[in-house]
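Give me structure tokens for this 147-residue protein.
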Amino acid sequence: MDQNRPVLADPQAHPEVVDAFLSSDATEQRHTLGTSHPDRYNPDSWTDEFAHLSRPGQREIQTALLYDYRTNVALYPTWQDWLRAHKPPALIAWGANDPSFIPAGAIAFRLDLPDAEIHLLDAGHFPLDEKNDETARLVLAFMDRHR
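Here you go.
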């Protein structure tokens, strides 16, 4: 997200960041960058997303969402306090090659949930698209252990 830091301060002052995020290339890359199996992706995934992002009003909505990312980090202490207090069972199936949410983000859950099951899958941002069988096995096994 480093290249997007300016939009966090003032998205209106940096339309080029929003343009890049909403571009056809960036939309495709959200699905395919870091994937170990690009052949498992249906191109409709990104062409449909791009068609949606190109609709009237989406630029404003996406700009607001990008701007709102700045609140995530500020809320981490609240979320972390809740996790430590409630200790919910947690299964974290994460794309090890995700360029947006790097593996350190998954591993960080251990600080608040030492018993969390963390699986770094050989996948990009959408592990369900390329590791669906493996993810399903993890979910089913997790659910069996936590009935």
